[in-house]
């Protein structure tokens, strides 16, 4: 055996020690938090950065001057942030401008277009509302956690505590098991999922049925009875007010809970029409009088029977058990006649509608009565096959004078007195190419029919139905104004509601 030089031996020993330490370091680095090994595909995802131009933002905008302006402001903020990052900008689309198809707001009919246009060069599609703020840099970091080559459906989850009619009583045995996204917090689809869904839409035409709660119905379509992904909850997608201390960790926040555009319109500018009938004079009309009637300057009750004690007005249209198209069109005719004072706005409600007129006054300041505005909770019929949108009547239908004049001048009429008035009006508006403007603050159903987290970031304007509730108590909890809670000015949900939630 040859003798080993002591100097060389020391160098070899040092090298062995160094290599041992290096191997230990690599082994430790291959462990995730908690001790599980990092898979090679996970390492690849972690190392691949996401850039703004890999994202397509879709602002769920509407064809109305107020909403178009808000959407443009939202787009400008996104592009400004991308410019600050000194990187290629993302694509930012305004939903209302993508085509002339009335059903585009339901998003699913547009999936083939999204796939064809962005399916090869993008990684994510992020959908948001016009009042949603996005911190672009933080959004990129958040999305980097998810493998963009897999199917992902991300959002802030909502769920139902009880099965509800607005969701067709889905998951009746355990409704809380199914989660759907809160659109206000933004939601995202990975491009592989977009591409697969686009093929499904092309191969299997969408059904021509009702679109009632789009966020729930989109989640159902994506889930596809378990064949597709469920919604993945992302805590950074939030609905806190922008600047709130609770929003520090958030990627998304909200500008407002109730849009405020200046001083509320005067109550003398709103004519209120309440649809009723003789059999409900003693049951429902007293609730209106005990709750919100006092906030109206101009209000009339329209019935099939003249009752001076209310007073109610018989329009000469017999009461019907189903739709009330004849009565509603008679109200439109009366609104433009000399029989009532001339006002900018017409509100038509059912006798079991609960509504905050002061909040409506605040919201209407955002709209121009010289434009044909048709405002309320938007539903759709047959949107996958063309179809049309309409304002669901129970939550309240608001029309500008311009809209009423155009409707009546068109000659559009009821095909029968008992036709559904809101749907017939929707068909008329569609034929005239007049947009239906949606506000989530109007509600066709009762508070318990909506997710608690959904109502938590609202200043609601209306609810509907007296079924299995105390309507006066519901009004006082959700819609009443008091000296300690100026909802229309505070821009926050009702104090008692926040505490309850």
TrEMBL record:
UniProt-listed InterPro entries: Fringe-like_glycosylTrfase (IPR003378), Nucleotide-diphossugar_trans (IPR029044)
Pfam family, one: Fringe
A single GO molecular function term of this UniProt record: glycosyltransferase activity
Keywords: Glycosyltransferase, Membrane, Signal, Signal-anchor, Transferase, Transmembrane, Transmembrane helix
Keyword Glycosyltransferase tagged: yes
Family: Belongs to the glycosyltransferase 31 family.
Record-given protein name: Fringe-like glycosyltransferase domain-containing protein
């Amino acid at each position: 055996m040859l003798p080993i030089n002591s100097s060389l031996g020391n160098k070899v020993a040092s090298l062995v020690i160094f290599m041992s330490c290096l191997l230990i370091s690599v082994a430790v680095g291959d462990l995730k938090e908690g001790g599980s090994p990092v898979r090679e595909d996970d390492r690849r995802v972690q190392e691949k950065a996401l850039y703004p131009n890999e994202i397509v933002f879709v602002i769920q905008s509407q064809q109305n001057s107020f909403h178009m302006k808000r959407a443009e402001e939202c787009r400008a903020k996104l592009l400004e942030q991308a410019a600050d990052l000194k990187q290629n900008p993302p694509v930012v689309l305004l939903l209302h401008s993508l085509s002339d198809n009335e059903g585009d707001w339901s998003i699913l009919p547009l999936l083939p277009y999204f796939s064809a246009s962005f399916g090869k060069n993008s990684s994510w599609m992020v959908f948001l509302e016009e009042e949603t703020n996005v911190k672009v840099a933080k959004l990129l970091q958040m999305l980097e956690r998810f493998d963009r080559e897999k199917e992902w459906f991300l959002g802030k989850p909502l769920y139902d505590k009880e099965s509800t009619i607005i969701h067709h009583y889905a998951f009746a045995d355990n409704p809380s098991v199914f989660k759907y996204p809160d659109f206000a917090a933004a939601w995202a689809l990975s491009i592989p999922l977009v591409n697969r869904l686009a093929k499904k839409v092309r191969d299997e035409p969408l059904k021509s049925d009702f679109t009632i709660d789009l966020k729930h119905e989109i989640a159902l379509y994506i889930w596809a009875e378990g064949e597709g992904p469920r919604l993945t909850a992302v805590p950074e997608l939030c609905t806190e007010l922008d600047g709130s201390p609770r929003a520090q960790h958030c990627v998304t926040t909200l500008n407002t809970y109730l849009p405020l555009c200046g001083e509320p319109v005067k109550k003398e500018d709103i004519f209120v029409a309440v649809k009723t009938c003789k059999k409900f004079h003693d049951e429902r009309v007293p609730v209106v009088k005990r709750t919100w009637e006092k906030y109206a300057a101009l209000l009339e009750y329209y019935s099939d029977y003249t009752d001076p004690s209310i007073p109610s007005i018989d329009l000469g249209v017999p009461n019907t058990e189903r739709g009330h198209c004849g009565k509603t069109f008679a109200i439109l005719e009366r609104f433009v006649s000399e029989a009532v004072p001339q006002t900018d706005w017409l509100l038509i409600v059912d006798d079991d509608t609960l509504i905050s007129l002061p909040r409506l006054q605040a919201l209407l300041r955002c709209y121009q009565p010289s434009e044909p505005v048709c405002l309320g909770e938007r539903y759709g019929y047959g949107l996958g096959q063309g179809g049309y949108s309409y304002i669901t009547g129970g939550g309240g239908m608001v029309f500008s004078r311009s809209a009423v004049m155009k409707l009546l001048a068109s000659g559009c009429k009821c095909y029968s007195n008992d036709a559904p008035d809101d749907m017939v009006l929707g068909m008329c508006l569609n034929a005239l190419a007049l947009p239906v403007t949606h506000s989530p603050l109007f509600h066709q159903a009762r508070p318990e029919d909506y997710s608690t987290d959904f109502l938590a970031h609202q200043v609601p304007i209306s609810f509907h139905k007296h079924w299995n509730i105390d309507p006066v108590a519901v009004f006082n909890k959700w819609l009443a104004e008091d000296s300690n809670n100026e909802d229309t000015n505070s821009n926050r949900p009702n104090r008692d509601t926040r505490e309850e939630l």
